[in-house]
Each structure stands twice: as structure tokens, then as C-alpha cells.
Amino acid sequence: MTLSLRTISREEHLAFIQSLPSASHMQVPSWADVKSEWRSERLGWFDTTGQLVGTALVLYRQLPKLKRYLAYMPEGPVINWFDPDLDRWMKPMLAHLKSAGAFSVKMGPPVVIRRWEAAAIKEAIAGKQAKRLRDVQATFIEPRAFEVSDRLRRMGWQQGEDGGAGFGDVQPRYVFQVPLAGRSLEDVHRGFNQLWRRNIKKAEKAGVQVYQGGYDELKIFHELYVVTAQRDGFRPRPLSYFQQMWKALSAEDPNRMRLYLAVHEGEVLAATTMLVVGEHVWYSYGASANHKREVRPSNAIQWRMLCDAYHLGASVYDLRGIGDSLDENDHLFGLIQFKLGTGGYAAEYIGEWDYPLNKLLHKALDMYMSRR
Length: 372
Known about the structure:
Protein name: Peptidoglycan bridge formation protein FemAB
Organism: Wenjunlia vitaminophila
Strand order of the largest sheet: 7-6-14-8-13-12-11-10-9
CATH class of the largest domain: Alpha Beta
Number of domains: 2
Pfam families: FemAB
Radius of gyration: 21 Å
CATH superfamily of the largest domain: Gcn5-related N-acetyltransferase (GNAT)
Number of helices: 12
Keywords: Acyltransferase, Cell shape, Cell wall biogenesis/degradation, Peptidoglycan synthesis, Transferase
Oligomer: single chain
CATH topology of the largest domain: Aminopeptidase
Family: Belongs to the FemABX family.
Largest sheet: 9 strands, mixed
Distance between the termini: 44 Å
Order of helices and strands: EHHEEEHEEHEHEHHEHHEEEHEHEEH
Helix content: 25-40%
Structural class: alpha+beta
């Protein structure tokens, strides 16, 4: 059965996303308003009956001085990735993007290939059995994901030499998630390691209060976020980015973005943002002060977010990216160690893929990116 593809309205796009159990927050219509420095387009695939069966939010980044674009679909498109005839989705999409002036296409299929339960990772770290996550025997493997990768390669899609491992992709290939479906909050709490449970209790005893903030409190969040950036050595986004994100996402759905603040003795010590699309909830950005860490505001705020995600009917609480290194000396090891304490699982996506529509321009961009 052939599929046709055309530009769709914001209303059509949103209605389709709302009909699904979940989709990436980077594939909702309002994400285009968050990334306003990119030109954007909403695409829809239609079957022979005229029914909308898939969508994509495409972000176009123009090359300097040329009317040629990199077309990027973060954590998308939202299609049936396990369709044996993947070509019927990709062909019309590539033809459309080429006609729109794209010289290269980048996408991130939301397809999980492996999962590792927290216990398996802890065992590997304790026994120094593996240097990387992919060296640990997976708890769950999705054979269909390998088929998706094979089909994409046969069509001419490419991945970097490391296959997008770790933070090599624009979006993280490895994430840490806590399953909520079919569990009680007591089950979730019991799944935490002893240190996490102790820290949640410690925060409670110390009188740490967590509350949901609004647009005006984004300034408080941002002050802590800058402190965190200086401590962890990354470049912080400006306050205006978060204000734009709040306005754009909240206009689409008042519950799409939430802000949480952990307060101790009248002082905000930690703040986080949370994103919601259907049954999928993400811990998006986190920030914390350098002092009073002993009252454990970060554990308190995560527990509150998890509880709220549960009450919203979420099936998964997503702590987002982790590195794939299990080496205790690696600078990203602390990240996986902190998230492991929630007792969830690490998940590996099949990574981001590139399709060069103009090989010369694609190679030039590749060389430029590798030098940055």
C-alpha cells in the first residue's frame, strides 16, 4: 500500500500526537516555536483512504550564504518504524525534503534496541566486568530494531563511526528510565537503592519542601542553572530560551512543561523542569546550589516529580541522557550512578541517521562539525 506525504496544519499534527500513547516532546508542533531560529515544517503521511498515519516535525538549518538546508527531525519522525516496507515512508519524505532545498537529512528514530536493568549494570560496575554499557549482557533485546537499522543502511542512510554511541549524536543515544505502568508508588519507592531512600528521608526530616513554580520563577531556576553550569563545565542556555520554551509549550498544552523548586529554610536549593507528552514524562533540565547539599534537595525534587508523573498516568519517567562508560574515572560516570539509584533501566536507541542528498555539501558539513 503506497503512502502519500504533504505539509499538514498545526491542528492536524497536534490531533495525531494526542491520539498516541506518547511521542517525543521534540515532535510536538510547539517544539518548532521553541526552536524558532530554525525554519520548520509539519509533514504528514496519508494512506489510500486519506487517513493521517504518521507525522514529522522538520527543522531546517540554512547553510551560510546558500539556500540549502540541513533537515533535522529530532527523535522522529513519528511513524510505524516496524513496517517491513520502510521505503514507502522514507521515499516520499526524502523527495519532499530535497524539493524543499535540503542537502542532508538527519533523523532520530524513536526505536529502543536494548535495555539493561539497574541490577545488571550495578553488578557489572561492582565486578569491573565491563568498560561500556554495550559490553554488559542486555536484559531485553528488540530484534525488530536490528531489522530497522539494516533496512536504513540498505536505503543509503548512514551513521558515524561510533554508531552514535554515548553523546556522539545530537540527542543522547542512551537514556535512563523508570517504568511506572502496572506498579504502585510503593513499588517504585522500594525499587530505589538504599542510598536514594535514605536521602529522600533525610530531605524530609530536614524540612525540604518541593513546590511547583510558574513562569516568574524561571529566573530563580536559571540562577541555579548557571551555578550548575559553572560547576559541571558546560555552557548554559540563556534565560530567554527557557522563557520561550515555557510560553511555546504552555500555549499548546498548559501541562506540557512544569517547573519544580526545592526549598530549605526559605532558600531555593534545587530546581528542575519536566515535560509531558501523553504517557511519557521527561526530567528535562536540572539545577542545584553548591551549598547545603547534605539536605538532599535533588533527591527530594526527583521523588516529587516521579510521584506527580505517576498521578498524571505516565507509563514511564524518563531521566534522559547518560553516557555509556562504566569507568568510575569517566566524567559522565556520576550521571549514570545517580540515575541508577532509581532502580529503573538504561535504554539504548538505534541512534541518529544521516542521508546525504548532496554528497559534496554533506561531506563539507561533516568536516566542519568534526572540527568544532
